[in-house]
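Dear all,

This email documents one entry for the complex benchmark we are building for the journal club exercise. For each entry we list the sequence lines for every component of the assembly. Then comes the predicted three-dimensional structure of the complex as a token string, followed by one or two observations. Please use this as the template for your own entries, and keep the labels exactly as they appear.
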Amino acid sequence: MGTKRIKLVIESILENVPLVGLSVNNICRHANFSEEVSSQIDLCVVEAVTNCVKHAYKQIPGHKVEVDISLYDDRISFSISDHGKRMKILQMPRLEFDPEDVEHLPEGGMGLYIIHQAMDEVSYKTEEGKNTLTLTKRFQTG
Amino acid sequence: MELETRKEGEVLVVKSLEKRLAAHIAAEFRERLAQLINEGNHLIVLDISEVEFIDSAGLAALVYTLKLLGRKEQLVIYGARGPVTNIFELTRMNTVFQMFDDEKGAIAALSG
């Protein structure tokens, strides 16, 4: 079976982001990922697209966020691109907290943590002003 | 965003009618909850039985609300479904928030 591809493009407005998530969730279900895994992938792509809108474009409308989806025999991958400010870090942030210490509970950094936890491969590159975060999830075998 | 509220004794039950509790409504969600706290509601059951999806911004709004209240014993969550529970577990937020399957139990936990 050959690779199947689709590209989703939204304007940099947070209200558009759920539409990407809903589309991704349905594509994952169609590709036979479980409901749980499909929801996790939906979440990771939403986190990535939200980051583009909030941080790369500082919530200024009029810019494009692109999501290129490739469905292979053994995996699905998502390349999320913007032409805004480059992301500073890609490494998984530490999510350490004392659940009893309410005052110091984290309110940020959870998005990237979730992406690293839930996806099999995460990479980031910038070429000619275009930043691309690529997320890959493999079908479980055996 | 759509929220439904009702009072059960001292406890305010806040139900999210939004299916996706995420970045696109997180700021408004925070503000609405802060307003309810400012109006004197200091014991809150958050009913998320209609919620199918929560992201880090949605979770951050819950953490923010908990910080406004001050103590873990003032905010509990009721009705989290599979995929949503999964995200609480992935981020260990299930160790921060008491989570209930039944509303009576959630209300009783705050009323004690």
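Observations: Chain A is about 30% helix and 30% strand. The mean pLDDT of chain A is 94.
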